[in-house]
Amino acid sequence: MAAVYGDASALQVPSGSGPVPFKDMDDDGTAPAEHITPSPMEDLGDLALPRSQKPSVHLLPYQGCWLPNYWVPGVIEFQRRFNPRHDDVILASYPKCGTTWLIALAFTAAARRAYPPPAAVGEHAHPLRRLHPHDVVPLVEEVFARGEEARLDALPSPRLMRTHLPFTLLPPPVAAAGAGDGCRVVYVCRDPKDMVVSLWHFLRRSSKCEDISFAELFDAVCDGTSALGPVWEHALSYWRTSVERPDRVLFLRYDEDLLRNTGESVRRLAGFMGRPFSATEQAAGAVAAVVELCSLGNMKALEVNKAGDVAVGNLDMPRDSFFRKGVAGDWASLMTLEMATRMDEIFREKLLGTGFSFA
After folding, report:
1. Gene3D superfamilies from the entry (predicted)?
2. pLDDT tens per residue, range 196-222
3. Among the residues of the chain, which ranges form H helices?
4. 201: annotated active-site residue
5. Please, are residues 188 and 266 in contact by the beta-carbon 8 Å criterion?
């Protein structure tokens, strides 16, 4: 198998061989972070006062989206300062819609020649066997919120990044780029009923949010005031662009694509990122190797994903909180039929006439 991918014996990754783990740039000292202070809150203009969902989560309305207040200065800097490269790939999602799985699949497929999935032990183990997926691919709004964009600039091409922002909040060079301008975007959406159940379980793993009620979170999603919402506008912004410019945005569905057709989705993803699998690779089981490494069972079993925390904004989330069930239909474990019907009807009404649905 290793011969199919190429030589992975050197830690120095050849230029163009695939994305490099973001955390490695920090750990080995090749990209010392030049701290740039984000714009102060006074620069935000006439924003409404914070709307508090919980004492630890204050939201601000910004350009049609409810943003956590600690992200707003970083989002503004991201919009102002980000310079995309032609081979950048941005992974986008609303939280708890398959983000971690998409990170793992995209990185493993794109970097398979530098880091073959079979590399299991020793000094040259695959990055996902020694790093949490969220340490491998950076969340750009947090990078800019922390004033650490120098690390992002230092990453060799091709760069792999992720965002939870709607398409309408991406920097103008990304959102307005025409065909051939590069900087591709991959979006994954999920049934909002499954998303809200997964999000509730996730938030309760934080000591700052452990008392949040499911009814409270459910109502926030339904009325469009959840963090990064409205959820329907979030998904619609990427779907519309994927229809208009399929060469720029790849739109994936968690249930239909990632769960039911994982191998085919990996092939589509690799091709879209400019790293298609050759016939020889496919015959040798390269796609299956990517799927196996990134499977929920394998990721949950890795020691690096069991202990410790991962910073998510102002929350410290247990590493294992990112790997729960990975199934479709889990909404029925918490949601009554009346709640499910209410959410379905609200989303159906909000999307009426757009041509898009979550079903």
Report:
1. P-loop containing nucleotide triphosphate hydrolases
2. 998 888 777 665 666 778 899 999 999
3. 2-5, 22-27, 72-81, 99-110, 133-136, 140-145, 149-154, 172-175, 192-203, 214-222, 231-244, 262-272, 279-283, 286-293, 296-301, 337-350
4. no
5. no
Q: Report the pLDDT value the prediction gives residue 85, as an integer from 0 to 100.
A: 92
**Residue written as token pair 């918490």:** 334
| Residue-wise pLDDT tens digits, 254-283 | 989 998 999 999 999 999 999 999 999 999
Q: What are the residue ranges of helices labelled H in 17-62? A: 22-27
Q: Is 58 exposed, middle or buried (0-12, 13-18, 19+ CB in 10 A)?
A: middle
Contact between residue 126 and residue 55 where contact means Cβ atoms under 8 Å apart: no
Q: How far apart are CA 311 and CA 317, in angstroms?
A: 6
CA pair distance 191, 174, nearest whole angstrom: 26
pLDDT at 312 over 60: yes
**What is the amino acid identity at position 299?**
M
64-108 pLDDT tens trace: 999 988 889 899 999 999 999 989 999 999 998 999 899 999 999
Rounded to an integer, what distance in angstroms lies between the CA atom of residue 91 and that of residue 228?
A: 16
Q: Which DSSP helix (H) or strand (E) runs through 122?
A: none
Residue 110 has pLDDT above 50, yes or no: yes
Q: Which of 126, 132, 134, 164 is catalytic?
A: 164
Q: What percent of the chain has pLDDT over 90?
A: 46
Residue 60 per-residue DSSP state? E
Q: How confident is the model at residue 313 (pLDDT cuts 50, 70, 90)?
A: low
**59, 50 in Cβ contact below 8 A?**
yes
Residue 122 backbone class (left: φ over 0; alpha: ψ -120 to 50; beta: rest): left
Are the beta carbons of 140 and 311 closer than 8 angstroms? no
